[in-house]
Design brief:
The protein is α/β, with parallel strands linked by helices. Helices cover 39% and strands 16% of the residues. It has 11 helices and 11 strands. It has an 11-stranded mixed beta sheet, with helices on both faces. Strand 1, helix 1 and strand 2 form a beta-alpha-beta unit. The longest helix is centred in the last third of the chain and has 22 residues. It is globular and about 60 Å long. About 4% of the residues have low confidence.
Amino acid sequence: MNRPRPRSLVITAGDPCGIGPEVILKALGQSLPAHVRLILVGDLAVFEQTAKRLGRRLPAPARAIGGPGPRWSALSFIDLAHRQRFAPGKPGAASGRASLDYLDAATHLLRCGLADGLVTAPVTKWAITRAGHPFQGHTEYLAKALGGSEPVMMFVSPRLRVVLLTRHVALRDVPRRVTTTLLQHTIRTTADGLRRYFGIRHPRLAICGLNPHAGEAGMFGLEEQRLLAPLLRTFARDGVRLEGPVSADGFFVNPAGYDAVLCWYHDQGLIPFKMLARDAGCQLTLGLPMIRTSPDHGSALDIAGKNRAHPGSMRYAIELAAKLVNRRAHEVRAP
């Protein structure tokens, strides 16, 4: 009887001029997750330089994937060997192109069945665009490359799960972007994700209001009455436990009892999330055909190369992805 191959995660280096290589090395330096193989995609020279600055050794072994009869080790490295020299904190078209090359190599492994999940270090979007590739974000790029429904971003920590209705858009555009169709899709995708990834059969969701005090009966805006009130009635008939609209200024003092909270825009959800997570949280993308996590921060160019980046979110992203791919493998093998 053939033994199933080990579950594997591919980790992309992100912007080689950002903190991605640093937080990856720090996270992997603590310990490797159990029962999963890691494939790191980047430039070996960048990781060697980063390790030297940190006074660390590269995780071993660094073995390339491919060739006849490849052997799986705890950690393998795919070196794309770009000729450019990447300086910390100084991205440009070359580093943007490299970031996208790492991501394309990772999606190739996923499509070929050589990886079961993906962890992405942060990129610098304007650098990728400068390289001639309009780039809205990892989430949109992966949805196009790998297929699946319209993706939904869920931020996960031991104390709180936050889902964003809109992502990186101007605040003035949020009311126009949030439609009944978007709300319905996000709520259903969130409930399905909680069932699929966390085993929560009957999720309890809260949804924030857009305006102060959730509109206060229309005094500060009508979005809550126009969009949310009919929606709450619809989902109640469908058996989905959706409560709200809640006032964001008070809800996050004690979010216990809810499996996730839906927020209208970036700062409404991520300020309280990061305060409560404290480097023990990450982003999980719902709606993709495979598991993808990422740290809850950007490429942090201002501290790149200064040994100041905290690896907690990257570590959490790797651990969560490993846990989920192993859980999925167990479910597939179960009779």
